Structures are given as C-alpha cells and as structure tokens.
Amino acid sequence: MKVKVTNTKGTATSAEINLSDDIFGIEPNDHAIYLDVKQHLANKRQGTHKAKERGEIQGSTRKIKKQKGTGTARAGSIKSGIRVGGGRIFGPRPRNYSFKVNVKTKRLARKSAFSYKAKSDQIVVLEDVNFNNIKTKEFINLMNGLKLANEKVLFILDENKDSVYLSSRNLKKVKVVTADSVNTFDVLNASKVVMTKSAVDVIEKILN
Predict the structure, then answer these.
(1) List of residues 6+ apart from 33 with CB closer than 8 A
(2) 0.90 cut: is pTM over it?
C-alpha cells in the first residue's frame, strides 16, 4: 500500500512510502482489539475504592429491640446494612483490575487497528519533524498546515523528541507518542493518525 509523504506545510511531496500489507492491510480481528483495549482500560483503573461494611462502622452493639413479641422482624444491630447509617452490603474493596493478554494477541490488535485506519484513509505519513524551540504555536501551525486543527490526532514519532512533545502538551485533542509505545486504544481513539517516515520503519520492525 503506497502513501504520499506530506511535508510540514501540508503539501504532498513527490516521495512515496510503501506501507506493509502485513501490518496496514490485514483483515482486522475485532476480538483481539476488544481484549487489548479492555486490558488497557483495566490497567488504568486505580482500584482504590472502598466502602465500610457492618464490621467497620462505629456504633453501639446494643440490641435494638427485644427478640420476640414485637410483631416485626428481629433486629440485632444498628450497623446492619439494611438500616440508615449502617454498613454497605458487599461493598467495593481495593482490588487490582489488571489481567494478562498474550503478546501475539496484542500485536495482532495493533495491526488490526492500523488496518482499520488505513482502510478509512485516516493515516498521514509526514516528513521527519523536529522543532528548534518549544513553542505551542509551531505545533498549531503544523496542524493547520495538515488541516487537522479540530481533529483528534495521534502523532507518532520514531523516538522521543522533547521539542515536539512539549510543544503539543497544551493541545487537548493531540497526543504525541513514540512508535515503540503506541497502543491499540490510542490508534482507534484518534480520528487521524500522523506518523513520521522514520516512525513507520520502527512500527514495521516491531510488529513484524
């Protein structure tokens, strides 16, 4: 699959890059995507939620009323979960939500995500970019040149470049990542995926 390389002003150059069909042209596997995205979201959960149960509530241990003769149900504790101010019945406890997904499944999920974007013509290959100064205005000009000012964009670099990353940090709809840290959720969550030429080589090397 051949894609035109775009310069930083948003103009297509004469150069072309060949995207590997083994990564950008496979039949997407929806279940692999589901597992990978589910794991990604689960790993982001803190799991620190906690509610007090009846054994942890402060209160009197006196029996509320006599056992028999009242005509109503027996009641032994003011801390019972069915009473106002009582403990929570089967309340949430701290837990770890993370679970394991095989490396091959995660790799297939990323390939499937890239293939969906390629089929929808939502991938832009950009010349290698680097800013001399850390300025948000420069990154905004880059997005305007690519006509992606109001789009949710995932920007993939071949390596960590502080000048680009820090220039984009104030923009809510832009996320800048390196090719070795990109995940399925970020690819699918973006309306456009912008990759530098060098980043494509890194992605193909990792996923092949």
Answers:
(1) 109, 112, 113, 184, 188
(2) no
Q: Classify burial at 25, counting beta carbons within 10 Å of its beta carbon; exposed 0-12, middle 13-18, buried 19 or more.
A: middle
Say how many C-beta atoms besides its own lie within 10 A of residue 65's C-beta. 12
Look-up of token digits 């032994």? 76
Which of 122, 131, 180, 115 has its CA nearest to residue 152? 122
Tens-place pLDDT, residues 15-55 = 888 899 999 999 999 999 999 999 999 999 999 999 999 99
What pLDDT, in 10s, does the model give residues 90-129?
999 999 999 999 999 999 999 999 999 999 999 999 988 8
Look at residue 43 and give its three-state secondary structure.
Answer: helix
Q: What is the pLDDT of residues 184-203, one digit of tens each?
A: 999 999 999 999 999 999 99
Please give the Cα distance from 179 to 157 (Å, whole number): 6
Which domains occur in the chain, in start order?
2-45+97-207 (3.40.1370.10), 48-96 (no CATH)
- Which residue, 205, 204, 206, is CA-closest to 24? 204
The number of residues in the chain equals 208
* CA atoms within 13 A of residue 77's CA, in its CB half-sphere: 15
